[in-house]
Automatic annotation (TrEMBL):
This is Phorbol-ester/DAG-type domain-containing protein. InterPro entries: C1-like_sf, DEF8. PANTHER family: DIFFERENTIALLY EXPRESSED IN FDCP 8 HOMOLOG, PLECKSTRIN HOMOLOGY DOMAIN CONTAINING PROTEIN. It comes from Meloidogyne javanica. SUPFAM superfamilies: Cysteine-rich domain.
Length: 142
């Protein structure tokens, strides 16, 4: 458990540094005309000289997407939840839920998912929402 906590903390620090880099480039004036807003995400479109020319990163939440896939983003930026007037943190990790309650479908893209050995879409349980997702919509903290 302690090893996992250290990994999560290291990833948070890495993402925070990346976010600050993007914010600094905005303040300096780099890429200001290069922001693409989709579903409340704010992506700074990188040039070929960027650190990762394949993925764009939301300045607000850190969501990553390929530049070619950016117009197909379905996930709304989590910042919209935080700024709601009725927002409250759930201190209960992984609320009880079942895949049956979701009709054996991914909570985001609605693809069929199941624990069957023949299934190519194994459900992934989100520790925060308690909902099940396919591997395309939930990355198990990666």
């Amino acid at each position: 458990m302690e090893k996992r906590r250290s990994q999560v903390l290291a990833k948070l620090v890495e993402l925070k540094l990346e976010l600050e880099t993007h914010r600094e480039s905005l303040i300096i004036g780099d890429d200001t005309g290069n922001i693409k807003r989709i579903k409340y995400h704010e992506f700074v479109m990188q040039s070929a000289r960027g650190t990762n020319v394949y993925c764009e990163v939301c300045l607000i939440c850190g969501f990553r997407v390929h530049d070619k896939c950016i117009d197909q983003v379905q996930r709304q930026c989590v910042s919209t939840q935080i700024y709601k007037t009725d927002f409250s943190l759930s201190l209960q990790i992984c609320p009880e839920n079942s895949l049956r309650n979701q009709n054996f479908r991914c909570a985001e893209c609605l693809a069929n998912i199941s624990f069957d050995e023949e299934s190519d879409k194994i459900p992934r349980l989100c520790d925060y929402t308690g909902l099940f997702y396919c591997s395309r919509c939930h990355w198990n903290g990666k």
